[in-house]
Write a structure and sequence with these properties.
The structure is a single chain. The chain contains twelve helices and eight strands. The radius of gyration is 18 Å and the shape is globular. The longest helix is centred in the N-terminal third of the chain and has 21 residues. The protein starts with 13 loop residues before the first helix and ends with a strand. It has one domain: Vaccinia Virus protein VP39 (Rossmann fold, 3-Layer(aba) Sandwich). α1 packs across α4 and α4 packs across α10. Strands 1, 2, 3, 4, 5, 6, 7 and 8 form an eight-stranded mixed β-sheet that branches. With 269 residues, it is an alpha/beta fold. The structure holds S-adenosylmethionine. The site of S-adenosylmethionine has 21 residues, from α1 and β2. InterPro entries: Ppm1/Ppm2/Tcmp, SAM-dependent_MTases_sf, TcmP-like. Keywords: Methyltransferase, Transferase. This is Class I SAM-dependent methyltransferase.
């Protein structure tokens, strides 16, 4: 089968980076995530391995982040077998196949139409996984979300690409629509925006970070949110790696400015 051609724009292109890193992790000697679907899916999509290779050094952090989000998802669905997962900005991630989904639960993958359509073409997902082709910032698709089910909204590698107003609008819609649940997401420190954006420009990636995390601002703006977890991605990566990489991430985690570069957050509401 020849690979699917892709016509991706802006932040849509970044889901090839995370997919590549999961594939790279899965074929490594000490996988952090061990995503057994990533290799087959990557092979089904046209991509430029030379361009993706520039991001190889992020393999452990990106896969440690995904693994912790998998663990939080399993814990949530364990506590709430009737729960609902909103997999926002899902890209080509195999999470609904990686985690155990109780028979009474609901799973909704959401990404912009170009990515959601590609997702439908390259995955053979079970019928009970719903795929929504929409921007998370559009109000219409929220009508498909059950208001009464406990709801876990996952946003992995998403919020940093949205404007601050859009991040708050998504959280507002979640809190208005859903009676109870959690929101889990990774976020970058504000100081990383110009640095990351310069790196994107240098590597020819047509996207930019637009939102930097400020916990006090988030909870002031959304007082229903109660913090459950706040972990550094370097701490996760150090726990999941061996040898020199382990010590490299331990070193990052000892320096506050580096430790704060990317953190993983979980709030209940
Ligand atoms: C870095 S990728 C992460 C993909 C996936 N979560 C993963 O970890 O592999 C960012 C994803 O966010 C999606 N995205 C960006 N803006 C979006 C929006 N406004 N609505 C829905 N998805 C969006 C992109 O299309 C892309 O799939």
């Amino acid at each position: 089968m020849s690979p699917e051609s892709v016509d991706l724009r802006g932040s849509e292109t970044t889901m090839l980076i995370t997919l590549y890193l999961r594939e790279r992790d899965a074929r490594s000697a000490h996988p952090v995530l061990g995503d057994r679907f990533a290799g087959e899916v990557l092979a089904r999509v046209q991509h430029d391995p030379g361009a993706l290779r520039w991001f190889s050094s992020d393999t452990a952090t990106i896969c440690a982040r995904a693994r912790r989000l998998d663990e939080w998802t399993v814990a949530f669905l364990g506590e709430h077998p009737d729960g609902q997962v909103l997999h926002l900005g899902c890209g080509l991630d195999s999470r609904p196949l990686r985690v155990a989904r109780p028979p009474g639960s609901r799973w909704i993958d959401v990404d912009v139409p170009r990515v959601a359509d590609l997702r439908r073409r390259v995955y053979d997902l079970p019928d009970d996984i719903e795929t929504v082709s929409a921007s998370v910032t559009e109000p219409g698709w929220w009508e498909r979300v059950d208001a009464d089910r406990p709801t876990l909204a996952l946003a992995e590698g998403l919020f940093m690409y949205l404007s601050p107003a859009d991040v708050h609008a998504v959280v507002d819609r979640l809190l208005t629509r859903c009676a109870s649940g959690e929101v889990a997401f990774d976020a970058v420190a504000g100081w990383t925006l110009p640095v990351s954006n310069a790196a994107f420009a240098l590597l020819g990636v047509d996207t930019r970070f637009a939102w930097g995390f400020d916990g006090a601002e988030l909870t002031a703006r959304h007082p229903r949110l109660r913090e459950r977890d706040d972990v550094t991605v370097s701490e996760l990566a150090s726990a999941d790696t061996v040898g020199p990489r382990h010590w490299l991430y331990r070193g990052f985690d000892a320096v506050p400015v580096l430790r704060d570069a990317m953190r993983l957050h979980r709030y209940a509401f």
